[in-house]
UniProtKB/TrEMBL annotation:
SUPFAM superfamilies: S-adenosyl-L-methionine-dependent methyltransferases. GO terms for molecular function: methyltransferase activity. This is Methyltransferase domain-containing protein. Gene3D superfamilies: Vaccinia Virus protein VP39.
Length: 204
């Protein structure tokens, strides 16, 4: 599926993540773990963060604002961005495709939680390199991927809508991270037995 097709899928179901049926604690404990590394690396008061695939729930942006970050969000879905702006009118949001969007600056913290795996498999390496390059020295990136060893992609459904997921495989992810001058601080299968992993990486 193309990013535009993924956007159309999420446009149709965007309200789910801002409604009462979605668990707002999803991913929060993992982000708390990642934020500990930022605190160790940065001593300044004003820090900048980017939420890639921010969606409509606002939970990660809420956490980052509470922790004193100046936050930006981006999502390929226009409906998601509309709902996100309603929840956080003070935050800058970008309705863009991360495959082609150039980060306007470097950040202390970047989250890409359950988002970039929807991009075409051929784009994954470029996206991960872009996000690593978008970190300040000592900055931290948290992102999710499929917990597989080899590159692969699947087509399925979510809430009756067509969906796509892809993953480079853990060995390739670690290779890219290292080549970008970053260190993997944490890798965990956090939804075992599901093949869902998250990585915390830090710029050297």
């Amino acid at each position: 599926m193309t990013p535009q097709q993924i956007a159309a899928t999420y446009d149709r179901i965007a309200s789910f993540w801002s409604g009462g049926d979605f668990n707002p604690s999803n991913g929060i404990a993992q982000h708390w773990r990642a934020l500990q590394f930022v605190r160790e690396a940065e001593g300044q008061d004003l820090r900048k963060a980017l939420d890639v695939g921010c969606g409509s729930s606002g939970r990660i942006i809420d956490l980052l604002l509470t922790e004193g970050f100046e936050v930006e969000g981006l999502d390929v879905s226009a409906a998601m961005v509309t709902l996100a702006r309603e929840r956080h009118p003070e935050v800058t949001f970008h309705q863009v495709d991360i495959c082609t969007w150039e980060l306007p600056e470097r950040y202390d913290f970047i989250s890409a939680w359950d988002s970039i795996w929807h991009a075409p498999l051929s784009e994954h390496e470029g996206i991960l390199r872009k996000l690593c390059e978008g970190l300040k020295a000592g900055g931290v990136l948290i992102f999710t991927s499929g917990g597989v060893d080899e590159p692969g992609e699947i087509f399925n459904e979510m809430m009756g809508q067509p969906m796509y997921h892809a993953a480079l495989g853990i060995p390739k992810l670690l290779e890219i991270v290292a080549s970008q001058g970053c260190v993997c601080r944490h890798l965990e299968y956090d939804q075992h037995p599901e093949l869902h992993v998250y990585l915390i990486v830090q710029k050297g």
